[in-house]
Fold:
Amino acid sequence: MAEVRFNIYRLNPETGGDGRFQEYKVECEKGDTVLDCLNKIKGEQDGTVTYRMSCRSAICGSCAMRICGHTRLACSTQVSGLLEIYEEITLEPLQNFPVIKDLVVDMKAYWEKIEAIMPYMVPDAGEPVPEKERLQSPEQFDTVFEVATCIRCSACVSDCTSLEADDKFLAPAALAKSFRFAGDSRDAADKERLTELVKEGGIWDCVRCYECTQVCPKDVRPAEHIIQLREKALNNQMEKSVGARHVLGFMESVGHSGQLDEGKLPMFAVKNIGAKISMVPIGIKMFLKGKLPLKHKPIPGAEDVQRIYKKLEGE
Amino acid sequence: MAMEEEVFSHDLLIVGAGLAGMRAAIAAGEGLDVAIVSKLHPVRSHSGAAQGGIAASLGNSDEEDSWETHMFDTVKGSDYLGDQDAIEMMVKDAPGVIYELEHMGCVFTRMDDGRVAQRRFGGHSKPRACFAADWTGHTILQVLYEQIMKRRVRVYEEWYMVSLIVRDNVCRGIVAYDIDQGKLCVIRAKAVLFATGGYGRAFKITSNAHANSGDGIIATYRAGIPLEDMEFVQFHPTGLWRQGILVSEGARGEGAYILNNDGERFMTNYAPEMMELAPRDLTSRAIQTEINEGRGIGGQDYVYIDLRHLGKERILERLPQIHDLAYDFTGVDCFEEPIPIQPTAHYSMGGIPCTMEGQVTCDPGNTPIKGFFAAGECSCVSVHGANRLGTNSLLEAVVFGRRAGTAASEYAKGEVLPELPDDANQPAREEIEWVLNNQGSESVMAIKDDLQTSMMENCGIFRTEEQLKSQLATISKLRERFSKVKIDDKGRRFNTDLIGALELSRLLEFSDIIVTGAVARQECRGSHYRTDHPKRDDENWLKHTLAYRTDDGPRLEYKPVTITTYQPEERKY
Ligand SMILES: Cc1cc2nc3c(=O)[nH]c(=O)nc-3n(C[C@H](O)[C@H](O)[C@H](O)COP(=O)(O)OP(=O)(O)OC[C@H]3O[C@@H](n4cnc5c(N)ncnc54)[C@H](O)[C@@H]3O)c2cc1C
Ligand code: FES
Structure:
């Protein structure tokens, strides 16, 4: 291979100021990963370039960063693959985190959110602790194994669009971690966990953009597990939150008429009168723009949708 | 750079947050002020990279299994250098610690009846590896950290332990450097427990993390305590070619083949009974012999591990990480093609001498260093002797982490904080100031590269006196070069350039000990194979090495092996 241009985000906390990009040229060999090149830059050109790394085998979760605009692990990203698409390689720190230095971010808030979800198994206190292992079927193992493989690299948190809008959102890593227990046949604290999770900043604040699932280097699929938690919450009759009512309203509307009534949905989702009234101005705006027809035109196939619903409900 | 000093104190201070360190913290229990110092966030510890399994004679897959068989396999695997009282303790504790992990919430792959599944592993005569697909270390590491969060144990995270404070055979604390803030601090403690892990980074091809640089063993050594059996370095047979990243023995446990250029399962010539599941020392030598004799693939320095006949479903169920690692790091799709592999420096049998309760000792008579404990890969109890069996070291970390944690907390309960000497932080402060201010021309990376390449060549799977002596000379030249090292980053915050230089100084120092021990030991035992002394020599060498630090390099003494049940015999597989 040849000389490759790296454009690296630099920020020195001691001199302060805004971050800037610095360019380095590296002789790359076939098989080199982004981390190999960073090590060459640090070792041969500029020892001040700072990043985290340890295992270099995609398991310790230290080296997640934005590589050419996408969050990935530096140690498992091949330079040759990037060069098929990009002319130069840009490296930036994770988003949604304060930067400490260059590519190193402050993970404090990340861990605080993990700590907030009761991140350990709570077995049934009424059951005596067995002498040997608690039994678990292969299927029950499968249910939680996928989330158990999260390496806490934070790629999902970096690319979370809900978190970008609201820093109170627990974000995908903590929510998936919650499913690690809520989904475990040996855990008995479902109610307690879900009661917290349906609050503001919890499972209903995910906008289901699926960025987390797409970006996860270990295929943990956080978004899918957030949905599993929502199902659990609804199965536990936790239907009061706006998010839950939104989903129920959606079902109600589509089930009833085979199509979605965007006007009724928010009215169903928020419960108290004050909140309903506060939505009037936006309702008027929608009406004036023609987004709130008084009567919905029936759309072809609506009956089929209704039939599907009936069938599913019957099951 | 001016370094102000801050002093903290705790009852029990644990250095290292892998399986051993965190299990120790949990064992310490309540009513005691316990803290952990770790240069990595706990979940980034290299225990997480362990794939294949953790041993215990649960008898789930084979009712015939027993602690006695587990003990015999381990003693034999150790080439009779393991201390049999400690091995007996470990294998008896094993089922209990697995059930504890399971009760904490650890996930394990299950049998249809819901019990923990168990598979075969090299050198074990029964299927006794408990596992979570090929993510075993990771899932245990997570569950232990969950318990640390639950117990709200204080963790000094991303703090680098620089030195250990010992005076008059009493341990008084450590000196540690807060990487983020660039501050040097003294942490006093009634008891200190080292669980700083392995140190395979002296070798070019290794399965170890960059962080595995031997900081704990060298802090111990520099405090005047000897290190035990350092010449025994395990090469794992199957590292990804050129990368060293591990292809777990679990792959062979599930039935994978190793093949040479002729497509031959050559293990039939080396271990006709156990074949691919022979112990690691033997299998690595077999692979290296094939390579040396020109039967590597295309005559090159690798052979194949072939998983194809296991089928896609089995691979995805039991070895999903291997599939991804092979794909991401060598571009090989193991459903369709065999994976190129070569032996990789993997595990360090030697370390800080200690008793079964983790009490560190400092001479052949086992004189204790009061208040100083060790557990996990940095320690040498010794349960692995000259060659560790796969799945026995996660077990060791958990069993002895727990035992040492209990013993250290018992000790701390009866003590007051020992007095600090006046100059407690002086060596650490001087070392850091020296690295920051040294005006030389040598780079950390260049010296490290030369060290790793030369260790691989001269102190690898096959060793001769000539090679080893030339390696001693090489190391001494490299240390000379290190005295002219210069780093670029002079800053205070998150200075990884500085940490890299500190780590290199430790790599150089322990490499010297490994090679010195290897020159002296004129025999073949376990992982230590001297082509110029091709036999095991129980008469002269059935003993542990102790290496002491002197101004003229390591001075060696020896201590006897504890043999209780099994007399040494020839090892055949
Ligand atoms: C790739 C791989 C696969 C493996 N697979 C298996 C397997 O399947 N089964 C098995 O039994 N064994 C396996 N092993 C071996 C086993 O994983 C290790 O021996 C074991 O995990 C070591 O645990 P530990 O707690 O002693 O150390 P580690 O988990 O390495 O932890 C060391 C800790 O010390 C800290 N530390 C180090 N230096 C400092 C310092 N200066 N200051 C502060 N903190 C410091 C680190 O931050 C870290 O927290 C494998 C090893 C490797 C490399
Ligand atoms: S260095 Fe460990 S995940 Fe990349």
